[in-house]
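Before relying on records like the one below, remember that each one covers exactly one chain. Contacts with other chains, cofactors or solvent are not represented anywhere in the record.
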Amino acid sequence: MANHSRASTSYTSATTSYPSYPQDESTTPRPSTSWTSGRPRTAGRPRTAASTIGADQQIICAISESRGISPIVGLAFVNLSTTEAVLCQISDNQTFVKTVHKLWVFDPSEILFMSTAAQPKSKLYSIVETNLPQLRITPIDRKYWAETTGLEYIQQLAFKQDVEAMKVSVEGNYYATCCIAAVLKYIELGLSFSFPFHSLRIKYEPSEGSMMIDLSTIHSLELIQNLQNVKSRDCLFGLLNQTRTPMGVRVLKSNLLQPSTDLTTLTRRYDALEELATKEDVFFAVQQGIF
């Protein structure tokens, strides 16, 4: 890929030391990693995970919000374990219940906020901090949230066959596009980790077309975790989880916590299931391709 050149941006190169961001007193410091601080590490083949509860995945999320009675929230999740990214933009209310639910579904290991939202704390920052205390929050400079940079990253990193579709999907979704810029720039400069050209599976996930299950119901029905023993597989996720890859774990968990209500999507799933159930050669070919 030596013939490719990264589109120029106003940011410094990855060899430049990452700027120091103001840290809130409640923010847990990021633990040291084995990544070197020199040349950015290239993402390799995703690790295969056994079908266990809560497979360890490193997911970085960036959040940005508009202000107003009906705030718009942009989110971008980048999973370093599966080399995939998901963008979404939500029209939320003053309690940010949809945003909190989305964070609960993806369960990121670190959340990025604009430094201006951390000091003083915005309402969304405080709600995330209160409702999801286990998540690590890192404020970063506002200049890294740039729509043009987000579009450049999509052009450079998304699968070639997905680039044009992604451009159409993010058109008009300013906050989501800014978030993908911030999270990828943080991964590149803060974590010294980079993706090869056209190697990142990027998709836009609309907030419509799925059911939202509140957190108390998720706990009460033991969808993801057993109430008596958090390590037990005796929950719906544990019983259904026969996945063999980190991406499979994430997709199953996402489908349990935000079930699709889109008829076309459901019909395609049923058709795929029927084909796998009635054609053994297809079933074993797919299974063989996973390993």
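Residues 224 and 230 are 9 Å apart (CA to CA).
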